[in-house]
Amino acid sequence: MKALVKTKKGIGHIEIRDVPEPQPGPGQVKIKVAACGVCGTDIHVRHDTFPYWPPVILGHELAGTVVARGPDCRYFDEGDRVVAEPHTQACGHCHLCRTGNIQICPEKRSPGWGIDGAMTEYICYPERLLHRIPDTMSWDQAVMVEPTANAVGDLLERTGVVAGDFVVIQGPGPIGLLAAMAARAAGAREVVIIGTPGDVPLRLAKARELGFTQLIDIGCTDPIQAVLELTGGIGADIVVECSGAPKAIPISVDLVRKMGKICVVGLTGGQNVELNWDKLLFKVVTVGFHLSTAYTYWDRTIHLIASGLIPAEKLITHRAGLDDWEQVFDDIENLKALKAVLIP
Ligand SMILES: [Zn+2]
Ligand SMILES: [Zn+2]
Fold this sequence. Notes:
Blueprint: E1 2-6, E2 14-18, E3 28-37, H1 40-46, E4 56-57, E5 61-69, E6 81-84, H2 95-98, E7 122-126, E8 130-132, H3 139-143, H4 145-159, E9 166-170, H5 174-185, E10 190-195, H6 200-209, E11 214-217, H7 223-230, E12 236-241, H8 251-255, E13 256-264, H9 277-282, E14 286-289, H10 295-306, E15 316-320, H11 325-333, E16 339-342
Parallel strand pairs: 9-10, 9-12, 10-11, 12-13, 13-14, 15-16
Antiparallel strand pairs: 1-2, 1-4, 3-5, 3-7, 3-16, 5-6, 6-8
One zinc ion binds next to helix 4.
């Protein structure tokens, strides 16, 4: 079968290869991949800035149909349409696994970098990591479940956005826009989205298309002044930091109100950030850091997307076959694509 493979360590080294079709082991089902989203992780593996074990098939944001069952499968049947949590090879024994936090087990090796991923025709997967999706859900919607589950879990389950909150999103990439939609679904009274001049043509334009009206381009508007004006001088209840930009992160402290919350989602890529510690303390801010997805985020997210409360599929700007991967990856890097999906 055809697969998109990172062949060895270094920058680049990605090619289409013909690889053997996998067969399901005990507790695994074989899934025919309907679509696989391209994530920032895949781009990082391309540029050698994320850990990976080559040769490895890329892609972890998969949706597909179960076509075969390995020995000892009990929960899924042929024909089931599924999405998959990427927490493969979590050990099951460490204190994180045993307290229900398999997503941050140090042994975890996800598809797409740790083990073979889904940018191919078939993948074999432990059935304990699968979630069934409704018949009414499109593949476009299904493939958005994994990235959306991050935003839903971080904002709704961990930060606790409630109806009436004033929410500011820094960084309008796919996760930032999903966070904006999650906040709106939770009943936020206003969602302000802050971006750079480079975000204006595609990302902020998409935000407008999604119905968000308070969009700030830091090239022409001072975001702190704007948010203070919109909140009568109080500041935002919740600031969601999705930019990962060391210059932008400290602004969160000025945007948030006293006793407010900062929800940290974006990675800086290893850079240090200078923060006014005392200002955080005097504002009595709660800062929460977030990574990956827990079990409970997934079913909630499936319902939110299927019901239309979070129209995550509207972020998809590119659909392409595996052979066109290079153009798609380039377009993401050059901010010409927002969310891209490969269809094997
Ligand atoms: Zn992802
Ligand atoms: Zn573990």
